[in-house]
Design brief:
Radius of gyration: 18 Å
Shape: elongated
Oligomer: single chain
Largest sheet: none
Order of helices and strands: HHHHHHHHH
Mean pLDDT: 88
Helix content: over 70%
Length: 183
Amino acid sequence: MATTTPVRERTRREIVQQAMVLFQSKGYSATSLQDIATAAGCSKATVLYHFNGKPAVLSAVLEPSRAALAELNAAAAELPPAEAQELAITRFVELAVEFRGVVNVLQDVLPTIDEMPEFRDLIAAGLRLTEFLAGSDDPLERALAEFAINGLLGECRHPGERTDAELQTLCDTALRRILRLPD
């Protein structure tokens, strides 16, 4: 197995960073591999050396948020339902604010994400988070959790309109008002 050199790591990191910027500014669909290569200061062949296509680049862009969501779900799974719901609300708001740029990118690809096998685990993690946010198996609570997630993600999509603290307060308050918390 070949070892990764620091130059390769830096190139890969630069490709991911530039892809994130482009996906946010132009949208995923409107960004080409050539656009990413040009922004990263490399060739399209170099991008394809590191990633096997644009969905793989997107997957790398989303990886930190995917890992954080998996960690949240694992922690919530260890708790009783009421505590899991509280953790899910608090931590999801924090993650949505922390990764607000990624949220914007994710919203752009949601209509076609089911067609990308790279994201099956991300979809499953999102569904699991919905269960924790709902706090129960009640279909209405589940629908309210989906509604709340979509609203929160929609609000996080607009960077610069609110500070992180304002956005965190708004999202936390909204989730707590929409979702029925146990007495």
